[in-house]
Amino acid sequence: MKLAFLCTADLWKNLAVSILIVLLTGSPATAQVNEPDIAELRKELERVKTAADLTDAVRAMAEQALKQAIEQVELTEQWHSKADEFSAARKQAPAMLKNLAVDLDKPLVEVALAVPDGVTLSDMEQLLEQAESELDIARNTAAQLDAEKLRRAARRLELPKLLTDAGMRLNAAEDMLKDTPPSNQSPALVSALKALNLARTATIQMERQALQNELASYEARGGLLKARLQMADRQIAMHERLVAFWNQQVNKERSREAEEA
């Protein structure tokens, strides 16, 4: 029943996020533009550099537009990777939370606090050192999770503003695509500027998609992060007991050896 409730809550959260995204960015039905092929852009750039029918001024403007278009296509790929990463994390979260919830529902495992036969002081000191090292690792893991929790909280406050800005820039880019170039403009320059506008629009579209996926990902993974923090606290408590136990045994053995010396 507990798991069913969590799933229902996540569905409502995801619905709320979807509504928020639409409110921030407008209709999600904006047509995805076909960005220029980067290989074709590079080929056209080389052609423009040696074209005999272009003036130096036109050549310079066309070269600049094509170089910027290539940069935009490369940037689009980066945003595409981020969008895919956040989408995958969102999809994986429910199964990961389900598995972790099973572990958290189990009773705490009692650590065997006993000194095996034949263990020397040197052995105990090594066991204490190992326990302290594992405790440090557990504490570092918890600290990293706490930092991630704070980072996500700050990011979730920032994302609505970024989405609004992306929506405004996208509207401006789409308007530029509708503009008619001057009739006396060089065809090579017209083509280069159109490629740049297409590439820029595609970049902003993918940037907005990545931001949307990021926001949805944080909502979907909130319960998972909380569960991971709970598991980290368990690990710390377990290792603290081990450190305290072996510290006590080492001190006892040192005192015994000192008395016998």
Descriptive report:
The chain is mainly alpha-helical and 261 residues long. The protein is built from five helices and no strands. It is elongated and about 105 Å long. The termini are far apart.
List keywords for this structure.
261 residues; mainly alpha; 84% helix; 0% strand
Task: Please tell me the overall pLDDT.
Answer: 87
Element-level helix/strand string: HHHHH
- Approximate helicity band: over 70%
The general outline is: elongated
Annotate the secondary structure layout:
Elements: H1 2-25, H2 38-50, H3 56-105, H4 121-178, H5 187-260
Short description:
This protein has 261 residues and is mostly helical.
